[in-house]
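Task: sequence design from structure.
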């Protein structure tokens, strides 16, 4: 099952992608996590990506497309995967489709997690992220057992640099301009499905499982 998560920054794509990955036994591929790991490790890619990320802008397509195309061609992706944060532009979606066509494959579902802009800023200011394993929490809605420590792996949680309200506003504008057109793109391919992301995490997941099946 090849799944794409769509939705505004903070809609809950990563949270749901992790749950899908666990339940269906397919890899969770998050381009944001890949960039953050590169930044943490001080790689050239990380240095380049950070200048865009800190401004709330998208990293240029040429820095992200090859990375994902190589990743989905790996053996553990044969049964499927859940892509989180990619594609984010029409050229990225087209590049993915072309690469999948070469592998004799295609996207099965594009899951749009709908959350209005009004809800996003508060969600983001409470977000805490684990850079070691990619888990995400919320100080009010999805707290950890021990404050500031990842339940999954025990690492220290961070407040992302790009989750400041000014940067979140910029990211929302970028989302509407560059990423939202993907909703039409995948509607035309008959693979778009939508869930109400304002419900609690378990309810959203139940709605997704209902669509994906057992
Ligand atoms: P969010 O969880 O808020 O949706 P991500 O963790 O997916 O954010 O991405 C964080 C940042 O990384 C983005 O704001 C963007 O700068 C960069 N990024 C991640 N994925 C992509 C992509 N597919 N194309 C361009 N930039 C990306
Ligand atoms: P995205 O990957 O779309 O940027 P995340 O999965 O990181 O979004 O979620 C953004 C923030 O909202 C995190 O702090 C997360 O813990 C929290 N969150 C995720 N799903 C829900 C939900 N259904 N209700 C309330 N908060 C949520
Ligand atoms: Zn962790």
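Answer:
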């Amino acid at each position: 099952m090849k799944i794409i998560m769509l939705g505004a920054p903070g809609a809950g794509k990563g949270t749901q992608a992790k749950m899908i990955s666990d339940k269906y036994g397919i890899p969770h591929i998050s381009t944001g996590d890949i960039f953050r790991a590169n930044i943490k490790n001080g790689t050239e890619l990380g240095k380049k990506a950070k200048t865009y990320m800190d401004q709330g802008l998208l990293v240029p397509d040429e820095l992200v497309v090859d990375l994902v195309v190589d990743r989905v061609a790996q053996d553990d992706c044969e049964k499927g995967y859940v892509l989180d944060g990619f594609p984010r532009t029409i050229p990225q979606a087209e590049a993915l489709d072309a690469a999948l066509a070469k592998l004799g494959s295609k996207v099965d579902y594009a899951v749009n997690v709908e959350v209005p802009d009004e809800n996003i800023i508060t969600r983001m200011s409470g977000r805490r992220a684990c850079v070691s394993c990619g888990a995400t929490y919320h100080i009010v809605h999805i707290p950890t057992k021990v404050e500031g420590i990842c339940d999954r792996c025990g690492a220290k949680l961070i407040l992302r640099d790009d989750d400041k309200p000014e940067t979140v506003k910029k990211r929302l504008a970028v989302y509407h301009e560059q990423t939202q057109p993907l909703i039409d793109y995948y509607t035309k391919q008959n693979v778009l499905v939508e869930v109400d992301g304002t419900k609690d995490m378990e309810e959203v997941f139940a709605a997704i499982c209902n669509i994906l099946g057992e």
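The chain has nine helices and seven strands.
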